[in-house]
Amino acid sequence: VLATPDSEVYSGVWVLDWAQRSVLATGRPPSFAPELNFPVGRGLHALPLIDALVTLPLRPFTDPILRYNLQCGLEVAFAFVAAWLVLRPLSANRWAPLPGATAFATTPALLGALQGGPVETLGLGWLALAVAAVPWSLGAWRRVPLGALALGATFLANPYYFVFAAFGTAWLGLTVERPT
C-alpha cells in the first residue's frame, strides 16, 4: 500500500474487502457495516463498488492489500486506455493521443488518490470510458446499450462521476444527429 498513516488508503482496503465479503455472502452490494458504531452498526455505501467486483475473482488467492494494490494499478492503466479512446477520433495519427492519455492517467487527482486520497477518485477511467462510449453509441441504435453499460459502470465506480457523464450524455442527446 502506497500510503501514509494519515491517509484514507487503509479505509479503501477495508471497504474493498467489506464489499467483496458482502457480495459473496448476500449476493448484493453492501449497505450496512456492523463494524462501524459497534455494537449497533451503521449504514454505509461502498465506493467504488465496481473495483470490488473486478477484483472479486482474485479473492481466494490474494489478501486484501494485494487486491487493493492490483486494483489501483488497473485503474491507472484503465484511465490511460479510456483517455486514449476519447482522444483517438481527434487525429488520423494513431500515436497522437498518447501524450494526452498519459497526462490523464498521471493526473494529480488520480495519483493523489493512490497515495492517500479518497478511494472513489480512482474511478476516473470509468468516466473517460463513458465519455468515449456515449458519442460512439449514438451513431447506431444497436450500440446504445453499450453506451448505457458504460454509464452504469461509471455509476458503480463513482456516483459523482456518473452525474458528470449523465449531463454530458443529455447534452449529446440534444445536440448530436440521431441515427435513422
How many helices? 8
What form results from the Cα inertia axes? globular
Percentage of residues in strands: under 5%
Query: Termini, distance in Å?
Result: 51 Å
**Topology pattern, helix = H, strand = E:** HEEHHHHHHH
Q: Determine Rg (CA atoms, Å).
A: 18 Å
User: What fraction, in percent, of the residue positions are helical?
Assistant: 55-70%
- What's the overall average pLDDT, rounded? 82
Largest sheet: 2 strands, antiparallel
In the predicted model, the low-confidence regions spanning at least 5 consecutive residues are: none
Query: Quick one: how many beta strands?
Result: 2
Backbone structural class:
mainly alpha
Placed side by side, the strands forming the largest sheet appear as 1-2
